[in-house]
Amino acid sequence: MGLAQSNGKLRGPVQPLPFSHKTHAGTLSLDCKTCHVNPDPGELMTFAANATCMGCHTAIKTDSPHIQELAKAAEENRPIEWVRVYEIPGFVYFNHRTHIESGATCQQCHGDIPTRERVFVDGDITMAGCMNCHVENAASIDCSYCHDQL
After folding, report:
1. Cβ-based neighbours of 86, under 8 Å, separated by 6 or more
2. SS3 for 91-115, per residue?
3. How far is CA 46 from CA 79, 90, 141, in A?
4. pTM to 2 decimals?
5. Contact, 45 vs 113, CB < 8 A?
6. Is residue 1 scored above 80 in pLDDT?
């Protein structure tokens, strides 16, 4: 997990292109799922596709060198190599769709993303944190619910 810090003013990794969740999810009120889709079978939330970004940026901030770099990547069908902030360990089974359908919100695990310029790990995403949430929401805390039995 690349958790490089910038000059200490902003928490979170430096991304290959600057991206402000505060602008997109905050000021513009874009819903998380607008950019982060949840393909079948529902385990992962994806990073925004270049084409999604270019849906607006063909007309907005086109003079920005960063948007021009994004446009070039989109034209070349080359993904932006975003630095992952959250990563689920291989020994844990986690399905985003199941959690969303049960009423969980993105903010419960990821914090108040719409107020942030950069994303950083926020909240207790440890096993204890997950188990506390399961207890609070009457979800199973049986080991096999989230872990394969060997």
Report:
1. 109, 110, 121, 125
2. CCCCCHHHHHHCCCCHHHHHCCHHH
3. 12, 17, 27
4. 0.84
5. no
6. no
